[in-house]
Task: structure prediction
Amino acid sequence: MKVTVTVRPREGILDPQGEALRRSLAGLGYSVSDVRAGKVFDLELEAADEADARRIADEISERVLSNPLIEEYEVGA
Amino acid sequence: MTRVGVLVFPGSCDDRDAVRAVELIGAEAVRVWHGDDHLGGADAVIVPGGFSFGDHLRCGALAALSPAMAAVRAHADSGGPVLGVCNGFQVLTEAGLLPGVLRPNASLRFRCHDAALLAERESPWLPGTAAGDRLTIPIKHHDGAWFARPEQVVELERRGQVLLRYAQNPNGSFGSIACVTNERGNVAGLMPHPEHAVDELLGSTDGRVLLQGLLDLARTPVGA
Result:
């Protein structure tokens, strides 16, 4: 079963990568006022059903894919 | 003789310097492979610098999941001293053995120079050092901005878990904090490299202070 996890920097956490991107975009003439850089993980996992897949993905996201101090995650289909 | 286990992950690069530094100050060093589930009889542990597992995902995150780190956790839980340097500091925060997390430098630049550190307090980790004393120890990192929630930092300060601050903040670390310990005081981590500051030839021997602290704590554990 395929599950997608998106990890983002938490609100209020300085994101130097996003800020560097924003400056580069401004250099190209785009008026982008804010960029937040995150990560997307496509997981192919074995699960009994969709709820089970979500439970496993939640567990993986909390334990490994995100650091809850600075990041939040979202599990999608 | 005190035996210090120096962890080795794929991508570690300061393990040999750590071994040499430990031997220079008169202890025995053994290297511990990340896949081993024991510490080779070590009384103290150094988690050294480098780029473990290519720094993939987050710095230190994958190394924190290794079998050797489970052994380090058991060692720390029983009061054994652990020092994390640079990537090793990142590994220990990711493993939950130290508070906070290390993030990319605010400047997004790799910093490589001597750093002046101010001792926040007296500590078994800083033998012979008084509050306000200055130690010069080099840094070399891209992801060294220590961060914790402000209310958490207040707690850490209250409990005396902040040991060193940068005289000049090189990386955007919260409160210029350079070195923290766990609540029990037997695990410490910092981005600067004590193992690179053990010989006058290289400009400073201040790194010996923390390494001696590690050895002292192996002989006389905190709270003992």
In short: Chain B touches chain A through 17 residues (CB under 8 Å). Residues 207-219 of chain B form the longest helix (13 residues).
